[in-house]
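Typical record is below.
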Amino acid sequence: MKQAFLITAHKDPALVLNLLEQLNDQCDVFLHLDKRTRKQNSWDEVWSHPRLVFRSQKYASRWGSWNILASSLMLLDNAIKYQPYAHYHLISGQDQLCRPIGELITMSDNNRGHSFLEFFPLPFEHWDNGGLSRLDVFHFNAYIDRSKYSNVLLNLIAVQKRLKLKRKIPGLFGELFGGSAWWSLSKSAAEFVVNYTHAKPSFFKWLKFSMLPDELYVSTILAHSSLAKDIKPSIRFVKWLGKEGKGSPKILELDDLNEIKDSEAFFARKFESVLSKELIEKINGL
């Protein structure tokens, strides 16, 4: 069976194009490009690439917003409708393969029925307030651009706290689970997530006013399913600037190569086409 790559991108078309060129005819790509990104000529090669079978600019992918989760699930839904795949790999436009595609396909064939993602129960010690502050007040990142109006967003949270307003977290699951927003799901797990979202959309809709819901939605649903036993550790390399789970991912450069190779991961993030140029050239040659 083929592999489905679900890519959510917002900048750096050269980086996305490099990833597409590393794939083979056993891979189909489903791409969501931030609604605010002007394609112009710079995205033409990506947009018309033969590996792409689906492309969309439906959502404005503002940082921390529900829109990112919505765009990811839209890609997953369309991939399932298109044809069955061995695994569904959600990656960002700043991710790259760090091992040859043939090795990823072999690993997938040897792990049919297994999914690869990070998940852990909340509260989580490395997240602010255990991660609960992402949920217990209204966040408006889906509507307000954090890069331009961060003070507005912070003031809206401060007003809620001053008035002692607190959202009631749904008790649908008893326990919520966090994890990485990026995952590789088996066919069964992918279908379960999409079918659950269609059949019981209340939790998905409730998360619209939360912060970073893409880091808990899929983890929570699968952790409370019979498929939890089939989850294996993440196959992604990330180097954090702060403590584990905090801060931002480091932009990877050539001096990170040995650490990436030693990790035995199949994907790595975060890259930028200029800063990571030498590293990307080395990885492409592996």
Notes: The longest helix spans residues 66-82. The longest strand covers residues 3-9. The two ends are 24 Å apart (CA to CA).
